[in-house]
Predict the structure.
Amino acid sequence: MNTMTAERHQDWEGCYNARDLGGLKRRGGGETRWGTTFRSDNPERLTEAAWARVHGLGIRTVIDLRGAYEVKPDGRAEDITSLNIVMDDETDREFWDHWNGTMLSGTPLYYQAFLDRFPERIGEICTAVARAEPGGVLFHCAAGRDRTGLIALILLALVDVEPEEIAADHGLSADRLRPAWAELNLDDQTATIERLIAAENTTARESILSAVAGLDPVKYLRNAGLTSEDIDSLRARLI
């Protein structure tokens, strides 16, 4: 882990895969702002001390991307705005039967298909980030990898983060989640995902780079329902 990666990682007891989206290199120079936008795995296991650290970082909005049935109470402060914006439209059986059938729904290979199929879901989440009250925003799903990773990709692409940086950010989840799989007595999902992607003659990194290359983030977000003011707000938050 290099120094920048270590600084971005958030050591919150009860979370494994939390990090600041600051410090990422942008095309043309500069980097993303620190302390404004965070991603993580499920924070419900955070200790009281860990929630105090989250609060101390200035985080005042938490956006949960999971289904309502996945959500449980936790110890967050009352002045943190909590939003549950469900990312996966599980009523679209055609989409999920296909991707679950291929076992690729938990990999970056389904990102492009998801972007094409569910722009309104992406739009609702990004609008919530854009219109959040003053303070930091944390968005998360269960593992902080797939759903969270796709939202991070959109936000980082919007502010011209280097594609290799976006792919590297996604790749950090593999190492961060290994202790979680061990604690749950589960096989390391990273190895399984790598095998599935390799069978498609590509890699996770190449899949992320392909998704970024095919994305016009401003056009996409406008078509997804964001206003020009929303897009400006996202940029101001991240840079």
User: Anything to note?
Assistant: Residues 163-183 form the longest helix (21 residues). The radius of gyration is 17 Å. The beta strands are 19-20, 37-40, 59-64, 81-84, 136-140.
